[in-house]
Amino acid sequence: MRVSSSRARRPRGVYIATGVGAALTAIIALALYLPLVGFLAATTASTAGLVPFPFAGVVGVTLLGLVVVAGALLLAVTRRRPWMSWTLAIIAVLVALAVTVFPLIAVAVGSADRASDIVPLLIDLWQRVTGG
């Protein structure tokens, strides 16, 4: 006599999708995000604040992204259909990429704002030096 479990086994594709999603998000975090944030923070430090680094914004987006990625991967491993797990794993990877790009965009926007503040200062200095 065979005893059947009331809980059905998940297909192998569910675990493969979740594993691939987790591996890709870990690679994105370690190989792209951390070096990029380190480079941008070092650039800010070496330019004495001329290149702004929005620390609070980057930390907030990182924490929010971490929650979304972890939630998507948790949902991926609990699904019964592999296509749904693959969809959630892809969403996790796309969110990880978006979180990685955010610091670069934030620094670029902040630098552009700072550059618009510096131009009048440079014109004033030029006029003082040339006497014009």
Automatic annotation (TrEMBL):
Transmembrane segments: 12-33, 53-76, 88-112
UniProt entry keywords in alphabetical sequence: Membrane, Transmembrane, Transmembrane helix
The keyword Transmembrane helix is annotated on this UniProt entry: yes
Protein name: ABC-type transport system involved in multi-copper enzyme maturation permease subunit
Organism of this sequence: Microbacterium proteolyticum
Species lineage: Bacteria, Bacillati, Actinomycetota, Actinomycetes, Micrococcales
